[in-house]
Amino acid sequence: LRYSHRGLKFMLVLLQSISDGERDEEHPNLIRVNAMKAYELSLKKYHGWMLQKVFTGSVYALPYKSDLLKALEKGKEVKEEESIEKIHQFLSRATPILDAIYEMYTKMNAELSYKA
To answer: Does the predicted TM-score (pTM) go above 0.90?
Structure first.
């Protein structure tokens, strides 16, 4: 459950970064910047040096932002602004739930911080 929770946090930070318009100005359709931010804020502290390097290399296999948004829309062609609005709506509902779970873990002293 803890690992699923961490993965969900990664996805939420990634989507938040995309919806906030953060991007690499030289390559605006790539989501490497967003994925690295999400990794730094959610998973990196749990990974040792080797896994950190593997993740850094794996960001080059990520889909384009346009392909990710199309996949989130189940293959439909939708304007980017509409997809971003749907992401905002999802985040407004999902983030408080994730925050409550983190708070519960903290109160119960159940958050493990060992590195893989």
So the answer is: no
